[in-house]
């Protein structure tokens, strides 16, 4: 036999959300500060690929994500430039200015 159960039950009173809203705001502010700091750091320290150096080649090529960097130094750069001189493909043509800038004709 089943016990009698009321059909309507009053809802419990809502809990205050002040602490939760404040906690979410602090977490959101912390995330925003971390992202702003990372953006500022990357703007000040662009990395070593931004300047051509003797013996190093950096080539920007189109890719599925918009663009990609090919970077090589030393023997790898010389091999890349040899390939660029001997072939007429798209990558070879894009590599030639970087090879000239690096002094690897």
Describe this structure in words.
There is one protein chain. By secondary structure, the protein is mainly alpha-helical. It has 2 domains: 19-47; 51-101, no CATH class. The protein is built from 3 helices and 2 strands; from the N terminus they run H-E-E-H-H. It has helices spanning 18-44, 75-86, 90-101, and strands at 56-61, 68-73. The protein has a two-stranded antiparallel ribbon. Strand 1 and strand 2 (68-73) form a beta hairpin. The radius of gyration is 30 Å and the shape is elongated. The mean pLDDT is 81.
Number of domains as seen in the coordinates: 2
Measured distance between first and last alpha carbons? 95 Å
Q: Could you tell me the radius of gyration in angstroms?
A: 30 Å
Order the strands across the largest sheet as they lie in space. 1-2
Assembly of the depicted chains: single chain
What summary fits the major beta sheet? 2 strands, antiparallel
Amount of beta strand: 5-15%
> What class would the helix/strand composition place it in?
mainly alpha
Number of helices: 3
Tally of strands: 2
Contiguous runs where pLDDT drops below 50 for at least 5 residues? none
Q: What order do the helices and strands follow?
A: HEEHH
Choose one word for the global shape: elongated
Features:
single chain, mainly alpha, 2 domains, 3 helices, 105 residues
Summarize the structure.
With 105 residues, the protein is mostly helical.
Describe the secondary structure blueprint for this structure.
Layout lengths: L17 H27 L11 E6 L6 E6 L1 H12 L3 H12 L4
Antiparallel strand pairs: 1-2
Helix pairs in contact: 2-3
């Amino acid at each position: 036999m089943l016990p009698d159960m009321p059909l309507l039950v009053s809802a419990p009173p809502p809990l205050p959300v002040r602490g939760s809203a404040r906690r979410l705001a602090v977490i959101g502010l912390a995330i925003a500060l971390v992202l702003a700091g990372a953006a500022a750091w990357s703007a000040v320290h662009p990395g070593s690929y931004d300047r051509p150096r003797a013996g190093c080649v950096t080539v920007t090529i189109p890719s599925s994500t918009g663009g990609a960097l090919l970077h090589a130094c030393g023997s790898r750069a010389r091999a890349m430039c040899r390939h660029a001189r001997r072939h007429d493909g798209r990558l070879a043509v894009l590599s030639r200015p970087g090879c000239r800038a690096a002094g690897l004709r």
